[in-house]
Amino acid sequence: MRELKVVGLDVDGKRIICETDDSSELFSVRVDDRLRAAARGDRVASNQTQMDLEVHSVLRPKEIQAKIRAGASVEQLAAAAGVPIERVERFAHPVLLERARAAELATAAHPVLADGPAVLTLLETVTTALVARGLDPDATSWDAWRNEDSRWTVQLSWKAGRSDNVAHFRFTPGAHGGTVTASDDTAHELINPDFNRPLRPVASLPQLDFDAPAPARVPEPVAAPPQEPEPVAAEPTPPKPARSRKARPAVPAWEDVLLGVRSSGGQR
């Protein structure tokens, strides 16, 4: 926004002549009720509504920077004023850099615990806590904005599963990097020395499929009861060899033939 200085009135007394700092250009401003009201310090002129003043106030560079410094985004201001984003960005860019620098400084500060400031920095503490809970510390984002009391609020955000998580800290610059204190329960859990506690665990959602039938449940095999060892049976006596039907009859001895004795032992 260019700044002009008043040179004087036009010859008819109805316009004010202004020029730039280098006197390279001249401008004329019509003297009307709004200009007279602005010169008197009136908030609302007779033909100007309060909404118009609020919109013009938002578009002033100082107002834009103040709202951005307080946490508003460029998109929010542009949408509220109904102006292109580029018109807000050129004034918001220096403040956005200031917010990013404040968030970076806060990560090097020391969390305040029950027994005093911790030895580790906020970034080291948060990284250890997230790793202990199985989360990726690189998938986080930091932001900061200045409150009405001129103190900085630092926000850490990350995604776990399908849920978006945020934690807020109050940053106080000072010696050795300054200090940070937890502003909500999530921040308290992050800087708690007991890193093994779960950070608001999210229950897994059941996967319902109404089209495909559920797979049949295969029964688990039941272990057979232990069997008692079978008694060792005595070895059976080998059976006598059966007499073959085709065996030849026994031949009587010679003395049996002379005495007339049969092979079965009887006499003739």
Automatic annotation (TrEMBL):
Q: Where is this region: Disordered?
A: 210-254
Q: Where is the DUF3071 domain?
A: 1-171
> Where does this protein have compositionally biased stretches of type Pro residues?
216-229
The UniProt entry, under Pfam families, shows: DUF3071 (PF11268)
- Protein's recorded name: DUF3071 domain-containing protein
In the UniProt record, the signal sequence range is none
